[in-house]
Design a protein that fits this description.
The chain has 20 helices and 14 strands. The chain is α/β, with parallel strands linked by helices and 521 residues long. It folds into 2 domains: 231 residues, P-loop containing nucleotide triphosphate hydrolases (Rossmann fold), CATH 3.40.50; 191 residues, P-loop containing nucleotide triphosphate hydrolases (Rossmann fold), CATH 3.40.50. The longest helix is centred in the first third of the chain and has 17 residues. The radius of gyration is 24 Å and the shape is globular. One of its GO terms (molecular function) is nucleic acid binding.
Length: 521
């Protein structure tokens, strides 16, 4: 019923009743014609009245907490400018949408929720991050919200705390002792590491003892099914495993009222769009949707337009691809055979300067290199671990735990760890191998300089990486970094050669996500 934007052919409407019943569509491929044209969200909401899957469901209570619309416009403009040049506007141009004032303190948002305030104070937070300041009132007002900001900007709590209040409001409609439908909240995440991180935040707040489950591949399916059948209010899941359990009838998605698509750009990049569409088809179309992303490519825009209604954009900084200005970015020309020695020099320097007060992620291009490099560092007396999709789930969790608690200082990782893993005190990133595209470079750099901290990213490059030099220079300039003269010369030489047919055209392939995919289903 809820599908990509477009006008639905009458023959689709006539056979719509074939899709009644939980999990029917999840178990099969979308018919070809239905991949092309589907009703808008508004039409889908009207159609839902005729859909027996949603018959008898209580209305969604959209507004929770206290939000305000009464501050002078000039004051709001100045506030948003101070908040990292925040921009807030309707997702669809030329539409009128009421936008609540941003919160300027935690008390303004959660003064009526002492358990949330206690946890906030325990964590030493002083002010909401810019993305939180505006996403909280939007979601608490029941509006579909799209949050675009760099990694490490606080997007998880931006959608999670309103979700707790949302569950409160839905359950207030039921009499004491009356069975409450669940789950009410669904968070879709691209990787199991990010899903686990979100669940840890849920457990940290323990709000009203709401139960949660984290669903991802690599863990015991039967155990996950048992938890789901026992009943949970919050589901955090990777798309593949959720689609699997939903098609098996383990989870009743048509009772979900609050949906989060976290790291939407990453999920689409990893090929999860079919699973996402199938999952959203099973959820009542009048749900509240929060979508977060670090970038705003056309694929994410299409997804947002297809599955939100009168959504509000909340953009921190620029929609253009940029790296965090708080991270110092250094580019070094280092041949592959010299990179291990250069890495050792950097690690020795960090040890001398910071003693044990540093943490480093070294990004490499392959699982084999991750294993070899971590072994070589251990042989040199340096505690290091590798992290990639070829390792068991328990090994990966152990590696991350050791990095978080300081048992190890260096993690050697493939791009699996470039997004979604929140180790807030990473001080340095080393790009041992330059990534396959400039977007991945930005996401790797974003592993440091999180939560307002500063950081440093050191990238090794050689002439073989020349096709990335022009966009790399653009990223460096936008974030106020120094551009080495030799990098400009290489970029100019490459562009000249390309213009004169001396460079072979690049063959573009979809990124090989085997390292990621096997961890998500």
């Amino acid at each position: 019923m809820l599908m990509p934007r477009g006008n639905a052919p009458s023959r689709i409407a006539s056979k719509y009743s074939n899709f009644h019943g939980q999990g029917t569509l999840l178990s099969g491929e979308l018919p070809a014609e239905e991949k092309i044209s589907f009703p808008t969200v508004a039409k889908a909401i009207e159609s839902a009245k005729l859909d027996d899957r949603f018959a008898g469901l209580k209305p969604i209570i959209r507004q929770v907490g206290r939000v305000h619309f009464d501050r002078p416009k000039e004051e709001i403009r100045m506030l948003r400018e101070i908040m990292d040049e925040m921009k807030v506007y309707p997702c669809i141009e030329d539409t009128e949408v009421a936008i609540p004032d941003p919160f300027t303190s935690f008390e303004a948002a959660f003064c009526d929720y002492p358990s949330i305030m206690r946890e906030i104070k325990k964590n030493g937070f002083t002010l909401p991050s810019p993305i939180q300041a505006q996403m909280w009132p939007l979601l608490m007002n029941g509006q579909d919200t799209i949050g675009i900001s760099q990694t490490g900007s606080g997007k998880t709590l931006a959608f999670l705390l309103p979700a707790f209040l949302h569950i409160d409001a839905q359950y207030a409609q039921y009499r004491p002792g009356e069975k409450k439908p669940c789950p009410s909240v669904l968070v879709l995440s691209p990787t199991r590491e990010l899903a686990q991180q979100i669940e840890s935040e849920v457990q940290k707040y323990s709000y009203n003892n709401y139960r949660s489950v984290c669903l991802y591949g690599g863990a015991a399916r039967e155990d996950q099914m048992a938890v789901c059948r026992a009943g949970v209010e919050i589901v955090i899941a990777t798309p593949g495993r959720l689609a699997d359990l939903a098609s098996a009838g383990v989870i009743d998605l048509n009772r979900v009222t609050y949906v989060v698509l976290d790291e939407a750009d990453r999920m689409l990049d990893m090929g999860f769009e079919p699973s996402i569409r199938r999952i959203l088809f099973e959820i009542r179309p009048d749900r509240i949707v929060a979508l977060t992303s670090a970038t705003w490519p056309e694929a994410v825009r299409t997804l947002a337009r297809s599955y939100t209604k009168e959504a509000v954009m909340c953009v921190i900084g620029s929609l253009d691809l940029t790296a965090c200005a708080k991270v110092r970015q250094t580019i070094e020309e280092v041949r592959p055979e010299n990179r291990f020695n250069r890495t050792m020099e950097i690690v020795d320097c960090l040890s001398n300067m910071f003693q044990d007060n540093f943490k480093v992620i070294v990004f490499v291009k392959s699982k084999v290199l991750a294993d070899h490099l971590s072994s070589d560092l251990v042989l040199k007396g340096i505690d290091a671990q590798g992290l990639h999709g070829g390792r068991s789930q328990s090994d990966r969790e152990n590696s991350l735990a050791q990095l978080r608690d300081g048992t190890i200082r260096i993690l050697i990782a493939t791009d699996l760890a470039s997004r979604g893993i929140d180790v807030p005190d990473i001080t340095h990133v080393i790009n041992y191998d330059f990534p396959g595209d400039i977007e991945e470079y930005v996401h790797r750099v974003g592993r440091t300089g999180r939560a307002g901290r500063t950081g440093e990213a050191i990238s090794f490059v050689s002439w073989s990486d020349r096709m990335h030099f022009t966009p790399l220079i653009s990223i460096l300039e936008k974030s106020g970094q120094e551009v080495p003269y030799w990098l400009r010369e290489y970029a100019n030489r490459y562009e000249y050669r390309k213009a004169n047919g001396q460079e072979q055209p690049r063959k573009f392939f979809r990124r090989n996500n085997k390292d990621n995919f096997q961890t998500n289903y």
